[in-house]
Amino acid sequence: MKSKFSFVLIGGWAVYLYTNALKSKDIxxxxxxxxxxxxxxxxxxxKNLRLKKYEFVAEGVSVDVYVEYYSEIGxxxxxxxxxxxxxxxxxxxxxxxxxxxxxxxxMERRGSEKGFKDRVxxxxxxxxxxxxLKAYTSVLMKYNKWNYLSELESIVSNAREEFKQLGFTxxxxxxxxxxxxxxxxxxxxxxxR
Length: 193
Fold this sequence. Notes:
By secondary structure, this protein is an alpha+beta fold. It has a single domain (8-192), classed as Beta Polymerase, domain 2 (2-Layer Sandwich), CATH 3.30.460. 54% of the residues lie in helices and 17% in strands. The chain is built from 9 helices and 7 strands; from the N terminus they run βαβαβββαββαααααα. The strands form 2 sheets. A 5-stranded mixed β-sheet has the order 1-2-5-4-3. Helix 4 packs across helix 6 (133-142).
């Protein structure tokens, strides 16, 4: 698909490219309206009205297609497309935008297996990506998502199984890591105000 269509990889695989932490089962991509038409001419695509996305299966893999000016992924899709960068040969959102999209997904899927995976992805981004928390808080301000900062603090504070999923089993070490992340979030909060 990469060689056929121009897209921005989002979701779990984009997180994986930043973190090398945990692979994803399905593929989530963000495309322009023109690319959507190209995909529709090559694959049997269905429209998911409730989730404002399109879906198809390619070589046995489920692909969710989010489209500019239509899909609601936390930040306007067209802004993500215009601020993409390349990581390991793929176009992906800047990490601050990607974190917001993962948080939106987690809030919508909280209490489910996918919501748990979203939280693991969020923790892995905080640990392993080049995420700039000050830039992230600027993104929150720009898109009126300031409540995401408290949500992020809550995810970190309550994470236990998420850290285990990433290989952290020493509870003392997890406590130290959490404290450091929360301190960094608080510093970013203070710097933005």
